[in-house]
Amino acid sequence: MRKVFTGRRWLASLSAAACAILGSAMFQVTTAGPAAAVPMLETVAVTSPSQSLSGYTQDATCPVGLQVIGGGGLIDGNAANKVFLTESYPLDGGRTWRVRAAEVAPGWDGTWDVTAYAICSVPLRGWEIKKGNSGGGAATFKTTYTFECSEHKKVFSAGGRVNAATGQVGLTMIRPDGPLTIGRASARVAPGGFWDNWSVNSFAICAYPVPNQQNVGSIAAISSVAFERCPGNTTANGIGGGGGTVDLGPYHLQGIAPNQENNGVYVKMTGLQDGGTMAQVTCCD
Question: What is the rounded distance in angstroms from the CA atom of residue 59 to the CA atom of residue 20?
């Protein structure tokens, strides 16, 4: 089973040998455990400098010979409810997961950072990225879904990207559907409102299914954070969560991250939206 770690809250317990500083970013990588349905699983985490900027993009890239099959992002530091995720998706090259965070309050002076996570493995048979787009125009909330995976393939993970001015629109949900056939993404304008053109893209990483591949999810009804874990001896290979495909209020994603403590996913919103906070994880043997 692969060992997964997440965010700075869990990093303190890692030994110094597990970390190396590359420039101004922190780079970490886990090693693969025993043989599994998804071979040589590793999670790469790269944390941005701590700063107060209108927006910041961070990439996590798989080692040579491995391919991204999932990923996520986590905002940390003195972010309060003033910073949200605007991008969390795989790049077309197949090795990198990109995350972007943006401040939603003009003139706010807090200090924060963002971590990008890439879940990597030996290239899976039939690996592909499917995409979708909500369409342009002005709106308070938009949702979209990808084209379906090619025949006989399943979704391993989903991504989303907002196309708008920095800090004006944030992601509210990224996840596959229940049967693992498409990826979904939703976004909402910032609390101050936004009346110009914008859209949201959805992404799905698909490949031929592996043994015991399944989608597990739950909703934390009275919390802005949620956890979900893989059952039995299965291992997480894709993560998702947040809100839904309808507008659940003026709250945005601050984190969808791998979680070592429960072999699953940690999800964080800027506040408690109507209907609670959803956590979802794709698992396999």
Answer: 16
